[in-house]
Design goal:
Oligomer: single chain
Largest sheet: 5 strands, antiparallel
CATH architecture of the largest domain: Sandwich
Number of strands: 18
CATH superfamily of the largest domain: Immunoglobulins
Distance between the termini: 66 Å
CATH topology of the largest domain: Immunoglobulin-like
Structural class: mainly beta
Number of domains: 2
Order of helices and strands: HEEEEEEEEEHEEEEEEEEE
Number of helices: 2
Helix content: under 10%
Radius of gyration: 21 Å
Shape: globular
């Protein structure tokens, strides 16, 4: 056992997730440390629930409470095949999944990821996801909204075209405008940040646009042209070195 523990890990994994309404968004970054090209490796993500209680026993043994229940694979049981292009490199993956919040206790959910050789069943690395929602709450403490902003919905003046919706992550240096958008979304960064990614999802959790962003050194703008999209509500995810920021965007190409 000690010899096994002494072996260097073949992979490193970092993973985080956040939930907006009934949509779960997960990000996984893997880094290969060894030549595993002869393996049939897959990255799996599983959603578990800490405990489930039934008013009536679902089985014949009389048990009503179950612990560490596996709910589903995300996105599916096939996982993601890690081909040769992922080996010896850092790779990023994004997943989305619609939660059945009527049957699940969101506060008890947990995500796990692992890399496995599907032939030998050997697992090379596993990780528990970081819940970014909980991290943000801990960072903010009791400094949330105190009611001072009531009635100030930016419905008048020029600033009304700039979104003020905070969907789980407060930030003072990312501005998104106009919102609603007639076909163009501008994203302005008012401070320096490291390279990241901008991802736009529709309400079904389908990724519509994914755009890498290079290092920004303050007051740098990015533009997404979306006149081809149907009118409706979209979720804009902005992944930066400071975390993941989520904004609701209304797109109405006919306005």
């Amino acid at each position: 056992m000690e010899l096994e523990h002494a072996k260097p890990a073949g992979f490193g994994i970092e993973a985080s997730y956040h939930i907006v309404d009934d949509m779960l968004f997960a990000q996984v970054e893997t880094e290969s440390h060894a030549d595993l090209s002869d393996r049939d490796l897959h990255l799996f993500v599983v959603l578990t629930e800490d405990s489930i209680y039934f008013d009536e026993p679902p089985g014949s043994n009389g048990e009503q409470e179950f612990f560490r229940v596996m709910r589903t694979y995300v996105p599916d049981a096939g996982g993601v095949f890690l081909d040769a292009s992922y080996l010896g490199a850092v790779a990023s993956f994004e997943f989305s999944h619609r939660l059945n919040i009527e049957e699940m206790d969101v506060g008890k959910l947990e995500l796990l990821a692992f890399i496995q050789d599907v032939n030998s069943m050997e697992i090379f690395q596993t990780v528990r996801f970081i819940n970014e929602d909980q991290d943000e709450e801990e960072d903010n403490g009791d400094n949330g909204d105190n009611g001072d902003d009531e009635g100030d919905d930016d419905d008048n003046g020029d600033e009304g075209d700039e979104t003020n919706i905070q969907d789980g992550y407060k930030n003072e240096y990312i501005r998104i405008y106009p919102n609603p958008s007639g076909g163009t979304i501008n994203i302005a960064f008012d401070k320096s940040l490291h390279a990241g990614k901008i991802v736009l999802y529709n309400q079904q959790g389908v990724r519509i646009i994914s755009k890498n962003i290079s290092d920004a050194y303050g007051f740098q703008d990015y533009r997404l042209n979306v006149p081809h999209l149907n009118a409706g509500l979209y979720l804009l995810n902005i992944h930066t070195s400071d975390g993941t920021f989520v904004k609701r965007i209304i797109i109405n190409p006919d306005q």
